[in-house]
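Predict structure. Chain length: 188.
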Amino acid sequence: MRLLTYLVGCSVDGFTAGPDGQCDPFGFDGDLKAAVLAEYPETVPDHARRPLGVVSTANRLFDTVVMGRGVYESARAAGADSPYPWLRQYVVSSSLKRPASGVDVVAGDPAEFVRGLKRRPGMAIWLCGGPVPAGRLLREVDKLVVHRHPVFGAGVPLFHAAFGPAAFTLTDFRVFATGATVTTYTKQ
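Prediction complete.
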């Protein structure tokens, strides 16, 4: 069965973006950048692949991405109507009507949809983000990889979810020269 991995960057206090969706405080440089490009090249959006030198790099872990509408709209605003064309792309939204070619909308229950994806053959599934889909899919997440950056501030949280603890086990922890950490948890 395929795994769902929530791979996400956040501030020390758990925000994935600023109040207006700003991601610029999260530095993407140095040894953390090198690690992401080596380990997760398929997570680099289309508009950034050429400048980062990963245009023809093969997928290492994922062949499918599930993202929230806010994440998708941010990519569109940056000029990427189809942000990950080398992946099967799904946007969780009940109101998005006209996505770009190669992007499908999940208007129903995202948990049921992801359970169906897990039963299909393929590589792992990347949950790209959005606190609402992440909260709705928390019970389906098999692996949580959090890039925590040494900045503070209010904004968009990791999850919007009702209280319902989910048990995970720490399986990896790395510290980078940039001050960022990458913590990996696996569902118990």
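Summary: Helices lie at 30-39, 46-52, 69-77, 110-119, 131-136.
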